[in-house]
Amino acid sequence: MTMSTDVAPSRPTARFARAGSRMLVVAGAVLATVLVWVIGEPLLGHDLVVVSPGQPAMDLGAAEITFVALASSLLGWAALAVLERITARALAIWTIAALVVLAVSFVPFAGVQTSGGSKVVLALTHVAVAAVLIPGLRRTSPRRTPSPSAG
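RESULT FIELD:
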């Protein structure tokens, strides 16, 4: 005779499940960004070469796009994880911060020289990261409500 018991997942198991889900979100954000690059540069022919004042021209290829998308996604994940440890309002704070970072990420477009189409493709790479990362990481965050005494 075998007995089966329903046991709620332990805290470490939930943490590993959340980490796995977040890894998938990061991978999705990177994939979405690379997809925008593939459509914009090789398929539509918008050369993603930008020239900043006083800097040499920089060709933003798949490696550069992938690196920036991965780094920014991992930083977003880390910021959310830190906030979740220190405040019950982590999700709201992180979401606002992520939207502010997205808005600020468009500022450099004003100072670089490249074609209008290339600027659009670059802007869409920023939007692609945010469009996957923000809702994806929000879904992985445990829903906690602040205690009445925290206030």
